[in-house]
């Protein structure tokens, strides 16, 4: 249970002033900022997010400098949603997204006969 809502990143940036650079995306509160957004409908449990760090397949994908550049561009973009739409046309980014989704939401076994 939450007693009081966490301020959103935009509110924190506005409070810091117009000349202040945004904090690091992977600072101590960054994960809480993502997980506490009230308008977020789909939430992934922290345990499943930790599985991303344990995936050898994901680590191998992240060795690709082009993918790393795409992810950095998204992280630094002002309009993340339009950039994401553009990157979803890139096969490498789609492979990355599919890999992440298969880790946090493994596909259900289909057409399996009961024993």
UniProtKB/TrEMBL annotation:
The lineage of its organism: Eukaryota, Metazoa, Chordata, Craniata, Vertebrata. It comes from the Eukaryota. Residues 1-42 are annotated as: Disordered. Residues 1-13 have a biased composition (Basic and acidic residues). It holds the Pfam family ZNHIT3_C. InterPro entries: ZNHIT3_C. This is ZNHI3 protein. It comes from Acrocephalus arundinaceus. Residues 47-104 form the Zinc finger HIT domain. The gene is Znhit3. Coiled coil: none annotated.
